[in-house]
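From the shared-data thread, chain only:
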Amino acid sequence: VLNPTRFTPDAALSTAKMADLWQNQGFGLVNAEGHGNDGGVYENYWVNDWNGNRQIDNKADPSESTGCGGEDEPSCWELTPAQAFVNRWMPDPAGVAPVVFANACSTGDGWSDNTIAGRLPAQGRVAVWVGGVGTVPVTGLDSSQDLFSEEILGAPLALGDALWFAVNPNLIGNASDWRRGTLQVLSDPSYTY
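Structure, as tokens:
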């Protein structure tokens, strides 16, 4: 179920604001979450009311939606991308380049210099990129992202080991969901934070 957070954000999420913070504030670790592709991690918003609750910003479980799956019917996950708040044109970072964990679909394809996972590390704008090669389940990588952060910020593990420890518990109970196992580290996995 999608519900608004009870926390007040530091600033409105936008491409311009994220670029400004990236360039002027600096980060050591960036945990980005949204919808994604090889060009970035996107903020999205609901555009339809598929469950008839008369609310466009749909808080219903998408599986309850009436527009799911029929031929010529829109997907119940019909979200419109607003902007890529982390994208392949990020400016040079303030200070050292951060470690980025992109909890979003298709952000781990680093085989082309034009993809976000290939371009930002090659240009020195991120030290390490962690992303999924294909589709990742919505909220399905949250625990892996949390564990990865804990493993590199605590008694630091090498990034490759931290990713293994973060993904392994997620796969044990969900072995049939291959999407949870497509994360990869794009950089030297022996780095520590």
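Helices lie at 15-24, 116-122, 142-153, 159-172.
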